[in-house]
Model the fold of this input.
Amino acid sequence: MKRSYDADPGYLTVNQAVDRMIQVIGKDNSKLRGRIYRKFINMAAENKIEYKKHGRAWWLKEEEVDKYIEEKGKQLKNNYRTMDENEEIGKITVEYIKDIIELLEKVGTPPDKILELLKVKLNMNDNKN
Done:
């Protein structure tokens, strides 16, 4: 009996297509995998990629998947940061905030005013996301 994870020749399972895209992007996390997975399913549902359904599984035409990955993969590579890059940005942000607090203390700003200024700044950043 053929199983859904054994796609026909010339076809890929959606997870195989996602794995190929992740290899091109070079960065991997579950949120990114989920977005790519949904993108492939939606493209198949909108008939932008040839597909077959086997039970609940979607098999995508391999050459069309490769063409899409070639077009979009390099573009997406620049859009996502690795965990190390995010950690480095976090460290820089903490140092930046420490420097601001130090400068405000030198000028003679009271601690409660410093805290209020930081809260306003952090709330502004939360609203942007």
